């Protein structure tokens, strides 16, 4: 089967508007969670978030495009632009015909939905923006990326809540590995920091009011983030033939379902997903050097995930960290942004820390690289996503 | 029993899929085996019915200022919040 490598990466998130600034924040233990700045904040009990700051869309897109781009689509396009530029790919007719895009998003164009509902319900208007439908479509980001680069192969959006990006990247990996496409742009995007979006999360009562503290005994829940990351997944031979710089190899993927509960995780599902990804990669647990955990900072996820990791990896598991303490939970885009921490570990030998960590929890007996990045020889990295509704997706990357 | 107490017992019974007559002031919440979603729905129903805000984080139930340990405790806590609102 063809090997699959990553030849480009792009991102925007609370830590920065590109990959170098995000790596710099990871390496220096700098977080991006802070006071949330959106309209009607005084009516929310959640007032912190990993918000993308200083983003002026008009600097990056023309007005015709902007009338069609929800914030989620802007993030996806901006990330794709960086990834394609880094890859050095030129999509000629033959390549473009077979290459495609798969992104994950949980909410789609939520800002557009929020704005149009406010207009008709709160403001009593009888009209919404005429392009509301093409803006809010969950697949809009995929369509605009495919149009920008002329990619006419497989293109679709995956929506599996907090595992959306990992499912998307896993499918893109399988597609390149199967020979169905030589190049896939993949990752995920989310822009859920809207009044309505946050009200919904507030109702579930799982949100922290100050900081996200994954695996810490005093953790009190999630902090939401926003952003995107997009990668170029490419057939190894194709990348070698054109002399591309290879950032990492994708070697394993597994997905499964808990069939258990709509919000509570199951260790069994997490265990099967991690073991499945290792089997797919042909690796033993002892060969994994770093796990980027789902690590949401909720009581339920972190204890469950820690137990699952110890079940798969035994009494001396590899280094584990959750970067959600830094950029927040980017929901459908989170797996993609977190895959960047794996790339950094594989390429720079630096493991991004778990920010917000204050106190060991006996239920989370792992080395979570608290608060300060650590140098480590990482040859193999795993990244976990365990979504609400028990939808699990795990990827394994290798240094090359 | 006050009207408020009767209303609260009705709400708790509904979330626990029981009849109000199955509950007493001393009934412990843990005995009702409410799952995390039912707890969140219970708190929401109390807030909506009495127009109050209940401090409750599902990550750390029990550490908030709102005692959810028994039917009687919930009645006292809700009455407290209602009287604070009136004050």
TrEMBL record, chain A:
Where does it primarily localize?
membrane
Boundaries of every Ketosynthase family 3 (KS3) domain copy? 1-399
Keyword terms, alphabetized? Cell inner membrane, Cell membrane, Membrane, Nodulation, Transferase, Transmembrane, Transmembrane helix
Where is this chain's protein located in or outside the cell?
Cell inner membrane
Q: Name one GO biological process term.
A: fatty acid biosynthetic process
Q: Name one Pfam family in it.
A: ketoacyl-synt
Q: Carries keyword Cell inner membrane?
A: yes
Q: Which family does it belong to?
A: Belongs to the thiolase-like superfamily. Beta-ketoacyl-ACP synthases family.
Its function?
Proposed to synthesize NOD factor fatty acyl chain. Involved in the synthesis of a highly unsaturated fatty acid moiety, which forms part of a lipo-oligosaccharide that is responsible for host specificity.
Task: Please give the NCBIfam families that the UniProt record associates with this protein.
Answer: PRK07314.1
Query: What is this protein identified as?
Result: Nodulation protein E
Automatic annotation (TrEMBL), chain B:
Matching Pfam families: PP-binding
User: Cross-referenced InterPro entries, in alphabetical order?
Assistant: ACP-like_sf, PP-bd_ACP
**Residue span, Carrier domain:** 1-82
PROSITE patterns according to UniProt = CARRIER (PS50075)
Protein's UniProt name: Acyl carrier protein
- Source organism of the structure: Pseudotabrizicola alkalilacus
């Amino acid at each position: 089967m063809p090997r699959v490598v990553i030849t480009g990466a792009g991102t925007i998130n609370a830590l920065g508007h590109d990959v170098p600034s995000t790596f710099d924040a990871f390496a220096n233990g700098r977080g991006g969670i802070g006071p949330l700045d959106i309209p009607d904040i005084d009516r929310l009990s959640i007032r912190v978030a990993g918000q993308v700051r200083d983003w002026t869309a008009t600097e990056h897109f023309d007005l015709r495009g902007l009338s069609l781009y929800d914030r989620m689509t802007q993030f996806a396009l901006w990330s794709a632009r960086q990834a394609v530029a880094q890859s050095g790919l030129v999509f000629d007719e033959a390549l473009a015909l077979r290459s495609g895009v798969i992104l994950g998003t949980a909410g789609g164009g939520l800002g557009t939905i929020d704005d149009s509902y406010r207009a008709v319900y709160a403001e009593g208007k009888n009209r919404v923006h005429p392009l509301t439908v093409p803006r809010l479509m969950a697949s809009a980001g995929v369509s605009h990326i495919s149009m920008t680069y002329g990619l006419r192969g497989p293109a679709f959006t995956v929506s599996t809540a907090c595992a959306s990006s990992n499912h998307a990247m896993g499918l893109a990996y399988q597609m390149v590995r199967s020979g169905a496409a030589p190049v896939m742009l993949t990752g995920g995007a989310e822009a859920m920091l809207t009044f309505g979006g946050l009200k919904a999360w507030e109702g579930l009562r799982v949100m922290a009011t100050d900081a996200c503290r994954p695996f810490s005994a005093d953790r009190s829940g999630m902090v939401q983030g926003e952003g995107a990351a997009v990668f170029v997944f490419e057939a190894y031979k194709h990348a070698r033939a054109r002399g591309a710089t290879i950032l990492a190899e994708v070697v394993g993927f597994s997905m499964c379902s808990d069939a258990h509960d709509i919000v509570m995780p199951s260790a069994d599902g997490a265990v099967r997903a991690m073991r499945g990804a290792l089997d797919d990669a042909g690796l033993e647990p002892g060969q994994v050097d770093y796990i980027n955990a789902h690590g949401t900072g909720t009581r339920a996820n972190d204890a469950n995930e820690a137990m699952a990791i110890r079940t798969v990896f035994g009494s001396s598991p590899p280094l584990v960290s959750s970067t959600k303490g830094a950029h927040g939970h980017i929901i459908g885009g989170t797996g993609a942004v977190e895959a960047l921490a794996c790339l950094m570990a594989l390429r720079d030998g630096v493991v991004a820390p778990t920010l917000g960590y204050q106190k060991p929890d006996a239920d989370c007996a792992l080395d979570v690289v608290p608060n300060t990045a650590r140098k480590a020889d990482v040859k193999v990295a795993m990244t976990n996503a365990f979504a609400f509704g028990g939808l699990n997706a795990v990827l394994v990357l290798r240094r090359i | 029993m006050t009207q408020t107490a009767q209303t609260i017992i009705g709400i708790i019974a509904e979330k626990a899929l029981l009849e109000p007559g199955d509950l007493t002031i001393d009934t412990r919440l843990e005995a009702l085996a409410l799952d995390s979603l039912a707890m969140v729905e219970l708190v929401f129903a109390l807030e909506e019915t009495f127009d109050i805000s209940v401090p409750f984080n599902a990550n750390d139930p029990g550490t908030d200022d709102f005692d959810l340990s028994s039917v009687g405790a919930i009645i006292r806590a809700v009455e407290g919040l209602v009287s604070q609102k009136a004050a």
